[in-house]
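Input (Transketolase):
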Amino acid sequence: MDTMRERFASVTSRLLDEDPRLAVVLAEIGKDGFTDAAQRHPERVVNVGIREQLLVGVGGGLALTGLRPIMHTFASFLVERPFEQVKLDFGHQGVGGVLVSAGGSYDWPSGGFTHMAPGDVGLLDTLDGWTVHVPGHPDEAEILLRQAAAAGDDKVYVRLSVQANEAPRPVDGARFRTLREGRQGVVVAVGPMLDPVLAATEGLDVTVLYATTVRPFDAETLRAATGAAGEADVVTVEPYHAGTSTRFVNEALLDRSHRVLGLGVSRQELRRYGQLDEHLAGHGLDPHSLRERITGFLGR
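Output:
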């Protein structure tokens, strides 16, 4: 199976052939995936070098000319480092574009904390109007990338990761998908957290919702899953900072008695970088740890 990032390069290269409005902006990282596309469309594949603020600035400028820019690099260099440009060159200017990240929260542990971005979605939550997709499989990433490219002038962030679920699920770029139904609580698994959540909740009387589009937050499906009466218990399991979506759960259930447990990446930096699976365990996101935390919460 190819990775989400490999799928991004192949799909976007084809989209450049199909849609003359699209342009790709790179900051050195990922350029090899667009070698052929750059030869075919030299005016619409731009590599600005290791200048991430310029990456977003150029994307904003292209958007002002009527193009649909797709900007790509590691999440820490795409959202965190050039955040001012994201805020001003897109939000303030009132134009749209597509940010496509790689690296996730800790996909490349040996790269160190400079290449980790567990706060990216929370940072975008401070801005208005961003759609955020978090696919859990390359097939899902392709569908969401195609939607993002064709999404008029919307502002879209597509968060790619080397973490992936074994099998894809149908995605529509809007709604959560109900994979299990139960009576003792609701667990919302985001993107690549689905397989660990399914393993952790095996045999438990809980509803499992699968979220690949987290902004806008699908309050309607969550409300339906919690039922109309009684106290609702909700657990969110996200591949970025723990509790990032807690506010949205609270808003969705404002008129109901409820409790929320937000699981995800902790704020504490793990300085012994190790391997990806060690980071998952270190943040309590492996199936064993998730089961203990979920059952402890639901056991009241």
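DSSP finds twelve helices and twelve strands in the chain.
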